[in-house]
Amino acid sequence: MFFRDFPFLVYLNLSFNEFEGEVPLVEANVTISVEGNNNLCGGVPKLRLPTCVTSSFGKKRKRPSTKLLVPVIIGTSSLSLLVFFFVIRLRRKKMRNNVSSAQSSNEQFLRISFAELHKDIEGFSESNKIGVGSYGSVYKGILVQDGIAIAVKVSNRPRRGASKSFISECKALRKIRHRNLV
After folding, report:
1. Is the pLDDT of residue 147 over 70?
2. How confident is the model at residue 88, as a pLDDT?
3. Three-class SS state of 134
4. 122: closest CA among 146, 152, 102, 94?
5. Nearest CA among 132, 109, 128 for reference residue 119
6. Looking at residues 79-100, what average pLDDT do you find?
7. Do residues 19 and 28 make contact, with C-beta atoms less than 8 angstroms apart?
8. What is the pTM of this model?
9. What is the pLDDT of residue 26?
10. What ranges in the chain are assigned the alpha helix state H?
11. 3-state DSSP assignment of residue 52
């Protein structure tokens, strides 16, 4: 035992330290004081301590030491952060792929000249006008080549603020994805 390595030990005072567990065996010529330590057991018979129970059934459960707990917490936190950043990166990559696929789908849209629009809407006649706003009018028509119904907005350029309104509408419509918007 540990105390056997001290041959000159004469007096061992363990009093009032709230120790618990078995008192180590020491040489017979050592005086030991264990007052105020109600959780001590075993040791030399002259101490008159209760015998230690060897079964683990009644023992208190030990708390994990900080030497083990700190690396586990750091490791778990690091792994969680790594997974978090990996998921964020995958989502951004997926969003970029969706944007690039939307841009590649722009190539499949019809290209229509103003002359074809003029013809399909029958010269922007009053009979095809479906709405009027402060900055322009909306006309309906049918594309002759595909038979698709369309609506065309014609802005009123001379009116003050019309170009600013047109740019705002373009910005809003650019963010909208719909099969009927070109």
Report:
1. yes
2. 92
3. coil
4. 152
5. 128
6. 85
7. no
8. 0.38
9. 67
10. 66-105, 114-120, 162-174
11. coil
